[in-house]
C-alpha cells in the first residue's frame, strides 16, 4: 500500500533552493514515481517497503503545484503545494502559546490575505522508541478558525520573513508546554557518552521494559490513583483564614504568581496564601468578583474568613482551570479586607500560577491588582510522587524527539526557532550541557551540521529582585548565550523588554518574532547588516584596581535607557557575596563598573535575576544579553 511520510499533505510548503527529500512506504521492491515542478523521480521500495528520494531544488514563488506519487495502480495527488521558507517551531508553552491567546490575533486575521503562511500542527504525543508516523495536518492562515491555533511567536516570525523574502512561509509546530530539553534530545546522543548521560539511558531502559510500555490508558489509570488525597483542612479550624494572623512568625512572604517550590522545595501538600487589601467605600454595595487565575491543583478560597470558592478533585484537570469566584456583598467591608487561599498540591509543582489576579468591580473597568507579595504558610508537606516509569511520559528522555519530531525528519527546513527553558529551571546548571547536546542531535538527525538554531532567551517572570543573588532563569539564559557564542550557526535573542511581571507567558509575541526575524535576516539570509540585528554580547572582562571593564561585540555607543543604571550590574569577591555596582559607566563600547563593597571583584553579572531590569542597549536600541 502506498503511503507518504507524515508531513506530505495537500497545502504543504516546501523549502526553496534545497534538495527536497520525499519518503514513504509501498509494496517491497516496487517502483515509486514522484512528479513535481517539472521533475519526475523514480525510486524502488526496499525489502521492508520503505523508499526515499530527493527532488532537485526549486525556487520559491507563489505558484501552486501538484505533487503526484504513483506506485503500481495506486496514485496520491497532493494539491495547493507551494515552495518558500520552512522553519521548525520548537520548545514549550511560550512557543505553543496560540494567536487567539494574544492581542496579535486581530492583526493576523487582518493581513491573512496578504501573506502566505501555513502551519503543520503536530499532535502532542510521546514514545520510548522512534516512531515513523505522527498525526499532523497543514493549515493555511486564510482559515481564521485554524489561524487561531497557530503559534503566535512563530507566526510573528513568519510574517516578517514572508514580507522580507517575498515567498510563502511554512511552520512545523512541534511545541509542547511543560517539557524538558532532555525529552527533545535523540537517544543516539546519550548513547555516544554513556557516562555523562547515564541517568538518561537508565530512564530510557526502564521505559522500554516497564509494564506500561504498550498501555497508555493503563498507566494513566494507575498514575491517577497515586495522586495525594486532601483528607483534612487543618488550617481553617486554627484561624488561618481569619484575623488576627495566627503565629505571624511562621508565615513567609512570597511574590505571586509563583510556585510553592520557590520557598518549600520539591514537595506536595497544603499551602495557605493570605493577602490584605483596601476596598474603597463606594465599592461596598457593588458586585465584586475575585479572579485568581490558575491554581495548581486544588483550592478553597475565603473572603474575610468565609468560604466563597472551591475547586476540588472532581473537576477535570483542575490545574488548568482559571478561578473566578463571586464575593457576597455582606462580606465586603470598607477599608481592610482579607483574602485567604488554601492550595492543595496533589502532584508535581503547585502554586498560584495566575496570570491575572485581581478583585473586579463588575460593570466597571475598576479592579484591584492582587499580584505581588502575599503571605504563605505550609499546613502539611507531602513527599513528591515518584510515578512508575512509562513509555508515555513526556518527561522521559528522548520521548518527544521519538514521537513528535523524528517522523518529520528529513523534511527540508531552513532552520529551527527554539523557545524553551522554564521547565528546566529545577536543573538549570545542566542546561549548558543538555541544550548543545540537543542541537547536536537534531543536526545529526537531519544530516546538516550547519542547521541554524535561533533561541529566544527566557523572558522575565515573578517579582523584581532588589537584592542580587542566584537565579535559575538567568543560568538558563547564560547557557543559551554561550551556545550562540561558541557554536557556529546558533543564534540567540534576549527578551528583555517583553516581560510581564508575575506572568510567565508574555503576550508580546510580535516583538519577539521581529527580533528573531532580524537575526535570521542578518545571520542566515544576509539581507540585513549584523549591527542592526545582533544584541550586544559581553566577550571579555578586565580588572583594573576596583574597576571592571567589560568589552562587547555589537556594543557600539552603549547606553542605559533613561540613564537608569540601578539594580542591573552586580559584582562579587572571593567570598561569593554579590553587591550592586554603585558606579556604572558606558563608554566607547565598554562598560566600566565597580562597587565600594567589593574591593577586589572576581565576577561581574548583568541582569542576573528571574525578572531582570535590563536597560543596557547599543546605538541601534538593541538590548544587551544578560551575562556573567
Keywords:
alpha+beta, 6-stranded antiparallel sheet
Structure description:
- By secondary structure, the chain is of the alpha+beta class.
- The chain contains twelve helices and 35 strands.
- Strands 2, 4, 5, 7, 8, 9, 10, 11, 24, 25 and 26 form an eleven-stranded mixed β-sheet that branches.
- The model has no long low-confidence stretch (mean pLDDT 93).
Span of the ends, CA to CA = 57 Å
Report the helical percentage: 10-25%
Mean pLDDT: 93
- Uncertain stretches of 5 or more adjacent residues: none
Per DSSP, the total helix count is 12
The Cα radius of gyration reads 27 Å
Estimate the global geometry from the Cα principal axes.
globular
Helix/strand/pairing class, anyone? alpha+beta
In short:
With about 625 residues, this protein is α+β, with helices and mostly antiparallel strands.
Task: List the topology elements.
Blueprint: E1 3-4, E2 13-15, E3 20-25, E4 31-36, E5 39-44, E6 50-55, E7 61-71, E8 74-91, H1 93-96, H2 104-111, E9 117-122, E10 136-140, H3 144-147, H4 152-165, E11 169-173, H5 187-192, H6 198-209, H7 216-226, E12 252-256, E13 258-259, H8 261-264, E14 267-279, E15 288-296, E16 298-303, E17 306-311, E18 322-327, E19 335-345, E20 351-354, E21 358-361, E22 367-369, E23 372-383, H9 399-405, E24 415-419, H10 431-446, E25 453-456, H11 472-486, E26 490-493, H12 509-523, E27 537-544, E28 547-553, E29 559-560, E30 569-572, E31 578-580, E32 583-587, E33 590-594, E34 603-606, E35 616-617
Parallel strand pairs: 2-8, 8-11, 8-24, 9-11, 24-25, 25-26
Antiparallel strand pairs: 1-3, 3-6, 4-5, 4-7, 7-8, 9-10, 12-23, 13-20, 14-19, 14-23, 15-18, 15-20, 15-21, 16-17, 16-19, 21-22, 27-28, 28-33, 29-35, 30-31, 30-34, 32-33
Helix pairs in contact: 4-12, 10-11
Amino acid at each position: 500500500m502506498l503511503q507518504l511520510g507524515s508531513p506530505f499533505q495537500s497545502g504543504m510548503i516546501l523549502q526553496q533552493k534545497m534538495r527536497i527529500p520525499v519518503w514513504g512506504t509501498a509494496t517491497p521492491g516496487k517502483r515509486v514515481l514522484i512528479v513535481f515542478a517539472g521533475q519526475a523521480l523514480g525510486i524502488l521500495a526496499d525489502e521492508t517497503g520503505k523508499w526515499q528520494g530527493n527532488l532537485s531544488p526549486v525556487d520559491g514563488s507563489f505558484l501552486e503545484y501538484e505533487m503526484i506519487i504513483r506506485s503500481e495502480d495506486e496514485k496520491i495527488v497532493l494539491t495547493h503545494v507551494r515552495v518558500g521558507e520552512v522553519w521548525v517551531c520548537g520548545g514549550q508553552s511560550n512557543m505553543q502559546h496560540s494567536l487567539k491567546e494574544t492581542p496579535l490575533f486581530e492583526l493576523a486575521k487582518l493581513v491573512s490575505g496578504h501573506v502566505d503562511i501555513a502551519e503543520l500542527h503536530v499532535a502532542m504525543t510521546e514514545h520510548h522508541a522512534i516512531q515513523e508516523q505522527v498525526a499532523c495536518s497543514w493549515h493555511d492562515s486564510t482559515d481564521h478558525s485554524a489561524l487561531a491555533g497557530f503559534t503566535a511567536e512563530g507566526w510573528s516570525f513568519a510574517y516578517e520573513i514572508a514580507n522580507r523574502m517575498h515567498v510563502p512561509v511554512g511552520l512545523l509546530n512541534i511545541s509542547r508546554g511543560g517539557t524538558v530539553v532532555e525529552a527533545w534530545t535523540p537517544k543516539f546522543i546519550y548513547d555516544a557518552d554513556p557516562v555523562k548521560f547515564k541517568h538518561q539511558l537508565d530512564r530510557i531502559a526502564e521505559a522500554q521494559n516497564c509494564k506500561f510500555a504498550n498501555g497508555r490508558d493503563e498507566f494513566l489509570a494507575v498514575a491517577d490513583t497515586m495522586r495525594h488525597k486532601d483528607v483534612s483542612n487543618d488550617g481553617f479550624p486554627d484561624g488561618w483564614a481569619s484575623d488576627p494572623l495566627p503565629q505571624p512568625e511562621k508565615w513567609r512572604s512570597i511574590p505571586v504568581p509563583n510556585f510553592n517550590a520557590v520557598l518549600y522545595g520539591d514537595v506536595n501538600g497544603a499551602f495557605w496564601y493570605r493577602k490584605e487589601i483596601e476596598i474603597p467605600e463606594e465599592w461596598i454595595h457593588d458586585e465584586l468578583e475575585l479572579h485568581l487565575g490558575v491554581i495548581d491543583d486544588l483550592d478553597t478560597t475565603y473572603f474575610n474568613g468565609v468560604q466563597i470558592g472551591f475547586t476540588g478533585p472532581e473537576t477535570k484537570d483542575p490545574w488548568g482551570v482559571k478561578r473566578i469566584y463571586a464575593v457576597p456583598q455582606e462580606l465586603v467591608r470598607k477599608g481592610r479586607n482579607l483574602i485567604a487561599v488554601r492550595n492543595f498540591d496533589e502532584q508535581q509543582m503547585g502554586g498560584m500560577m495566575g496570570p491575572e489576579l485581581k478583585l473586579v468591580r463588575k460593570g466597571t473597568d475598576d479592579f484591584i491588582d492582587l499580584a505581588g507579595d502575599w503571605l504563605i504558610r505550609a499546613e502539611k508537606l507531602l513527599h513528591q510522587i515518584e510515578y512508575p516509569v512509562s513509555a508515555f511520559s513526556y518527561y522521559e528522555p528522548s520521548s518527544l524527539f521519538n514521537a513528535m519530531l523524528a517522523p518529520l525528519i528529513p523534511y527540508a527546513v531552513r532552520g529551527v526557532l527554539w523557545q524553551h527553558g522554564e521547565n528546566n529551571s529545577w536543573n538549570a546548571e545542566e542546561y549548558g550541557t543538555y541544550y548543545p547536546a540537543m542541537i547536536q542531535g537534531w543536526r545529526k538527525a537531519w544530516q546538516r551540521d550547519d542547521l541554524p538554531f535561533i533561541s529566544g532567551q527566557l523572558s522575565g517572570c515573578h517579582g523584581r529582585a532588589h537584592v542580587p543573588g542566584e537565579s535559575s532563569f538567568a543560568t538558563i539564559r547564560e547557557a543559551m548565550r554561550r551556545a550562540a557564542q561558541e557554536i557556529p550557526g546558533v543564534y540567540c535573542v534576549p527578551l528583555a523588554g517583553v516581560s510581564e511581571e508575575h506572568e510567565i507567558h508574555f503576550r508580546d509575541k510580535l516583538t519577539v518574532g521581529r527580533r528573531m526575524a532580524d537575526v535570521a535576516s542578518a545571520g542566515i539570509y544576509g539581507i540585513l547588516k549584523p549591527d542592526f540585528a545582533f544584541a550586544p554580547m559581553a566577550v571579555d572582562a578586565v580588572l583594573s584596581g576596583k574597576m571592571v571593564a567589560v568589552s562587547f561585540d555589537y556594543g557600539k555607543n552603549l547606553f542605559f535607557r533613561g540613564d537608569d543604571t540601578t539594580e542591573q550590574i552586580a559584582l562579587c569577591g572571593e567570598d561569593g557575596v554579590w553587591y550592586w555596582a554603585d558606579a556604572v559607566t558606558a563608554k566607547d563600547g565598554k562598560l566600566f563598573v565597580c562597587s565600594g563593597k567589593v574591593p577586589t571583584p572576581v565576577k561581574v553579572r548583568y541582569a542576573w535575576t528571574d525578572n531582570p531590569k535590563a536597560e543596557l542597549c547599543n546605538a541601534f536600541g538593541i538590548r544587551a544579553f544578560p551575562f556573567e
